[in-house]
Amino acid sequence: MEFSNRLKNLPPQFFATLVKKVGNAVLEGRDVINLGQGNPDQPTPNHIVQALQEAAANPLNHKYSPFRGTGDFKKAAANFYKREYDVDIDPETEVAILFGTKIGLVELPLALMNDNDLMLLPDPGYPDYLSGVSLANVEFNTMPLIKENDFLPDYSSLTEEQKQKAKLMYLNYPNNPTGAIANKEFFEETVRLAKESDIAIVHDFAYGGIGFDGLKPVSFLQADGAKEIGIEMYTLSKTYNMAGWRVGFAVGNAKMIEAINIIQDHLFVSLFPAVQDAATVALNESQQCVRELVELYERRRNALIESCHQIGWNVSAPKGSFFAWLPVPANYTSEEFSDLLLNEADVAVAAGNGFGEYGEGYVRVGLLVDEDRLKEAVMRIGNLNLF
Length: 387
Ligand SMILES: Cc1ncc(COP(=O)(O)O)c(C=O)c1O
Prior knowledge:
12 strands; seven-stranded mixed β-sheet; single chain
């Protein structure tokens, strides 16, 4: 049996190789410190787990969910945006419930674009954006994110042709992989460009809950007029350590939300209602667990960056997300350096080129092991005397 061309054309999963290499090293009995992945290490807060346990016991939740999600969860998403960002959202027309935001990001090009339409994507960027490009058979151009621009795209370098042709743009701040954040002025500039050039904007706010040094990440929807041209995707995976639960939502422009809902009417019945009930509790109740989580990541970030400086590695501290974006020493490619760290120091990091051409020269380190392991990882790297 032959696979479809659509399947054959899907981009290779770059990080599958890393997972395999790390797996092999562990099988050999080596004590690998794995900083390569993006899987939150902390458990889901107890009150959310308890809410799921209770909701799972309710027979009403054993039926099909309403197609487009429960009213309570949609209201909770709208209330969350009002409380956290002072953004008004209509729960009926401006919220779409998602099985995690990965699915929303992949299905949106299918819902909004025709063959060979143009998408604009950040480089480096979350690799799964390319899955949506490939499944929808659209073209994409990249917007380089470089240090000199604080890892924000420089819209003045877009050509007239790109601006005319592009239908959809993805952005992501706090940023995976660079750890950079965006401010309101940048999002206002984005809205101006989107309106002038008729480009729909998707802001992937996966790390919206995680900002450091007292900085609360700005929502794209806080920019004036943002809802006229775009949506934001919010996941509970990171803010509440619920990556395995597969729950998130999109909010904003009613037409884009309707497009997501229509495609989902054909692909899914919505999430297990008990998961939606527990997600409602996560959004509505005390956010103390989020504050504690951010403090934990900030302590880990400080431990990592201080240790790097101690071994003479000239790195900058991320301002949000749970990733640090570290430059590789001269004379190494990202992949050579990450292979060296795995083979000689038993430390796994993600090679930057896996996130795009402009990721070359960097490795991504996750703050997803405790402080002592982070320090130990940097000490092992220090022993290689590369800096
Ligand atoms: C930038 C970014 N966007 C989206 C996602 C998808 O998150 P989920 O599908 O768990 O909501 C991730 C997960 O790692 C991510 O890093």
